[in-house]
Amino acid sequence: MEKDLGNYRKSYEKGELLLDNVPVNPMELFRNWFVEVDTHFNVGETNAMTISTLGLDGYPKSRVVLLKKYTHEGFIFYTNYNSEKGKAIDANPNVCLSFFWQAAERQIIIKGRAEKIAENLSDGYFESRPRGSQLGAIVSEQSEVVKDRSELEDKLKALEAKYEGKDIERPKYWGGYMVKPVEIEFWQGRPNRLHDRIRYQLQSNFDWKIERLSP
């Protein structure tokens, strides 16, 4: 079975991104774009991002996770440290994040280094999660093979009984990473495939080199 997708085309005409009107710090531009997309475009989960890691098998792997916080330092998400992605990050903390907001015709690609955040910060976020999500983090030995779904559901029922009326502590194998960027590229779709691409590269002393790239 095959399908030719050569005629799938779209004209991008919703914005522009020029060197003379971008801030000197890419995190400021990220914040501006995130707020604009979240406020004015119907994109579902604006904080959905793809994280790519280099696996222990030597293959890169990408999957969608949710951004939970961004600061002047970087981007925070949470996961099981013993998962496939957690093991990959332990072996090679250089990762890539990407956001694609189709409704706004915008994409952001971030290269950076993932580091575990402080345990008290992971504790605080875990406490803020719905109780079902807290239990789910304990139930799931993420990325491990399970016989069938009933195995997970039975384990959840047992944990619901165990923790009835009790606080649920964050398991030590679950917590947050911050990705500290070394390069951020902003992509704005434009007509005739002459898209705008602005790249920020981190230099010494936390200065950023800003360049326009050919589409």
Protein architecture, described:
The chain has helices at 26-40, 84-91, 119-128, 131-139, 149-162, and strands spanning 48-54, 60-66, 69-70, 75-80, 94-101, 106-116, 174-188, 196-202, 208-213. The protein is an alpha+beta fold and 215 residues long. Strands 1, 2, 3, 4, 5, 6, 7, 8 and 9 form a nine-stranded antiparallel β-sheet that branches. The radius of gyration is 20 Å and the shape is globular.
Keywords:
alpha+beta
Number of strands: 9
Helix fraction, binned, reads 25-40%
Shape: globular
| Percentage beta strand | 25-35%
Quaternary structure of the protein: single chain
SS summary, helix count: 5
How confident overall, as mean pLDDT?
95
Distance between termini?
A: 32 Å
**SS content category:** alpha+beta
The profile of the biggest β sheet is: 9 strands, antiparallel
Helices and strands, in N-to-C order?
HEEEEHEEHHHEEE
Rg, nearest Å: 20 Å
Spans of at least 5 consecutive residues with low confidence: none
